[in-house]
Every structure is written in C-alpha cells, then in structure tokens.
UniProtKB/TrEMBL annotation:
<keyword id="KW-0408">Iron</keyword>
<comment type="similarity">
    <text>Belongs to the cytochrome P450 family.</text>
</comment>
<keyword id="KW-0479">Metal-binding</keyword>
<dbReference type="GO" id="GO:0004497">
    <property type="term" value="F:monooxygenase activity"/>
</dbReference>
<keyword id="KW-0560">Oxidoreductase</keyword>
<dbReference type="GO" id="GO:0005506">
    <property type="term" value="F:iron ion binding"/>
</dbReference>
<dbReference type="InterPro" id="IPR036396">
    <property type="entry name" value="Cyt_P450_sf"/>
</dbReference>
<keyword id="KW-0503">Monooxygenase</keyword>
<dbReference type="InterPro" id="IPR001128">
    <property type="entry name" value="Cyt_P450"/>
</dbReference>
<dbReference type="GO" id="GO:0020037">
    <property type="term" value="F:heme binding"/>
</dbReference>
<keyword id="KW-0349">Heme</keyword>
<protein>
    <submittedName>
        <fullName>Uncharacterized protein</fullName>
    </submittedName>
</protein>
<dbReference type="GO" id="GO:0016705">
    <property type="term" value="F:oxidoreductase activity, acting on paired donors, with incorporation or reduction of molecular oxygen"/>
</dbReference>
<dbReference type="Pfam" id="PF00067">
    <property type="entry name" value="p450"/>
</dbReference>
<dbReference type="InterPro" id="IPR017972">
    <property type="entry name" value="Cyt_P450_CS"/>
</dbReference>
Length: 65
C-alpha cells in the first residue's frame, strides 16, 4: 500500500490522485492515440488471478490546436 490507510494515512494522497487526473486530461487533450503497425501492435496478456497486459504500446500523434 503506497499511501497506507486510516487516520494517519498519507495526506498527499488526494494531491497525487489529482495530479494523475490532470496529466491524463492533458494527454487526452494534446495527443491522439493511434494504433501501431507491425509487431508492436500485438496485444499479449499475462493470466493469473487476474488478466493484465504483458505490454501495451500506443502511438501518440500531437494534435494541432
């Protein structure tokens, strides 16, 4: 647990989550996500208790405003 729990938990948790939301919003605002060509477009998964991506490559194209 990176932020811990309870009344003595990290007081910067809310700030960290807010910053992550801002970064994600800026990425969505300034870039277009594109599918990659060739070998990098392959989507492999690791299966265990949950299924998670082994690797996930995304192409970014800058949006001109």
């Amino acid at each position: 647990m990176s932020f811990s729990l309870g009344p003595r938990g990290c007081f910067g948790k809310r700030l960290a989550y807010l910053e992550m939301r801002i970064v994600l919003a800026l990425l969505m605002w300034n870039f277009r996500f594109a599918k990659l060509q060739g070998e990098l477009a392959k989507y492999d998964t690791l299966e265990g208790v949950t299924v998670m991506p082994r690797s996930c490559y995304v192409g970014l194209e800058r949006v001109e405003l």
